[in-house]
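Note to self: keep these together.
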Amino acid sequence: MQSSKILQLSVALAFTIVVVPILIAADELPKAPDAHVFALTPEPGYFTEPGVAVNPMNPQQVVAVFQDNVHAAYSTDAGATWHVEDAAPKNYRVSGDVSAAFDNQGHSFVCYIAFDKLGTFNYWAHGATRNGIFVRRSLDGGKTWEENHIPVAEQPSAAGIPFEDKPYIVADNSKSKFAGNLYVGWTRWRLEDSQMVISRSTDDGKTWSKPVEIDAHPGLPRDDNGAAEGFDGAVGPDGTLYAIWSQGDDLMFVTSKDGGKTFSHARAVLHTAPIMFAIDTLDRANGFPQIAIDPKSNRLYVTWTDYRNGDIDVFLATSSDRGKHWSAPIRVNNDAVHNGAEQFFQWLAVDPVDGSVNVMFYDRRNDARNRKQIVVLARSSDGGRTFSNYAWTDEPFEAGGAFFGDYSGLAAYGGRVYGVWTEQPAAHPPPEKSEAEESKNAKPKPRGTVVKVGTADFHGAPGR
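Structure:
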């Protein structure tokens, strides 16, 4: 993602967090039940684009990942304490665009891009040098990571190579014949277009198949509206892989019923307003979609954000027939329509145990100037028909032009919800310029972001 294009090399973090839980209160919204927030980064830096995953084999184990460069935090007590380690590759200067997953063996994976330097700003394939998509494995729930990373797709420096970007990893934790499969989908920037491609692993992430293009036709070649971007995937109880992404003003959808060997013809299933947009005080923002499935009902859910109502809102649509037909979109944020308040950078998680639909997003409804945001968690226990909104944080903060990346992260299991996001502290000393900042040809961005992880527990207090 663009965030990775401006990453700065940071001093490697390797520490154990002394956790002081912050109890959350809110004036305008009800407090998320049993909510706590922890800082994963002790000092501000270029920290963005986090992800989080829960081990279905042992829900006490949780892994949260974030970038600049790749870092991974783990918890062995359902998020009560966290420990952070440097997980960046040693053979590339820059790494990021992270995502995390646990497979059906309880092994955890962090997926990321890595490169040395960039070509033309936003036209990433022009002048691209060596780059690729990689995974690292942890066989002990994130405590330690294998020394060598594994290439999913790697491009050596040569004229005209593509730039591999924005990957997301998905695990098949069903009991089907494809159980244990791993999938990574991403955008392949070429000089003439952008492709949506996917690779699979059937051997616990040790080897990966040749990427398969899954879009009906390529998108535009710039990292902007019209490109094929924002891959996300979900696996049903029968092992069917469902994938979604944005292209033009549509959300594109494909399925694979044979473990990722072949895919259905990509088709537009939901029409949106433009998926990239400007937000006051923020470097850039987008409404890239996510998809999730309730394994008990087989109901599919998709979330995204757009500005069809003037200000930016979070939307959700559902399908009860495996993606053939989709409901009309509903607003997830429950403030007044057309009130000028932005809600953005949503992430979706469906709890596989209780079937609740959880959506996290930044929310500016309490700031009349529409500049400061809090983090809100919305929850539905009626199949996505209605949502309750809860304040996960109550201290509004302003982004101040900093780069927040392209996404946040959310996971849910057994009524316990884990969110991870980027904030900018109210005041902090400016960090010194890094070697990477001096060497990048992209315009330096304001620094001073931190990554926080929140927990909430709805056991005994289900959303309505």
